[in-house]
Amino acid sequence: MLIKVTCAIIEQFGRVLITQRSETMTQALLWEFPGGKIEEGETETECLTREITEELNLIVTPTQRLTPVQQQYPTYTIELIPYICQYNRGTIQLAEHKTYHWVTLADLNDYAWCPADLPIVKEYLSLQLTV
Ligand SMILES: Nc1nc2c([nH]c(=O)n2[C@@H]2O[C@H](COP(=O)(O)OP(=O)(O)OP(=O)(O)O)[C@@H](O)[C@H]2O)c(=O)[nH]1
């Protein structure tokens, strides 16, 4: 079964927000873009804004859909659907994650990412070079 997951590349002041999964989560301690599984009857962007509010207490607006990535993990397969998002308001309060970083584009490659995120980081960086 394919599990659809949205994730947010939240931009502010030339940096992006990334989150570290906690010890108790699957993909423990790896870095990801915050987001989560699409629920029944939900659009991708509804899922994204709900998850970002639940996980981080932030209000964001999705602005650009990037290329979805299919990733097979040992016991399940996900389709990870990334959106670039603008930060609107809110102060970060972590509900699930271990920690977060606001990182410069140059530093994005230095993190231990969930495997599904690697092509997304690559695409995102390639877009920044051409604008
Ligand atoms: N939110 C999010 N999930 C990701 C990313 N990359 C990636 O492989 N995933 C995987 O997508 C799945 C769904 O994410 P989730 O955040 O809703 O997972 P969860 O903790 O609710 O599910 P769980 O209870 O199975 O651990 C997880 O297995 C997670 O490891 C990412 O960038 N963002």
From TrEMBL:
**Family of this protein:** Belongs to the Nudix hydrolase family.
Q: Needs which cofactor?
A: Mg(2+)
Organism annotation: Pontibacter aquaedesilientis
EC class? hydrolase
Keyword terms of this UniProt record: DNA damage, DNA repair, DNA replication, Hydrolase, Magnesium, Metal-binding, Mutator protein
- Which InterPro entries does this entry report, sorted A to Z? MutT-like (IPR047127), MutY_C (IPR029119), Nudix_hydrolase (IPR020476), NUDIX_hydrolase-like_dom_sf (IPR015797), NUDIX_hydrolase_CS (IPR020084), NUDIX_hydrolase_dom (IPR000086)
The superkingdom listed in its UniProt entry is Bacteria
Boundaries of every Nudix hydrolase domain copy: 1-129
The protein's matches in PROSITE patterns, at most eight in alphabetical order, are given as: NUDIX, NUDIX_BOX
CDD domains attached to this UniProt entry: NUDIX_MutT_NudA_like (cd03425)
Q: Which reaction does it catalyse?
A: 8-oxo-dGTP + H2O = 8-oxo-dGMP + diphosphate + H(+); 8-oxo-GTP + H2O = 8-oxo-GMP + diphosphate + H(+)
Q: Name one Pfam family in it.
A: NUDIX_4
Recorded E.C. number(s)?
3.6.1.55
Tell whether DNA repair is among the UniProt keywords. yes
Instruction: Give the protein's recorded name.
Output: 8-oxo-dGTP diphosphatase
| Gene3D superfamilies, per database record | Nucleoside Triphosphate Pyrophosphohydrolase
Q: Which residues form the signal peptide?
A: none
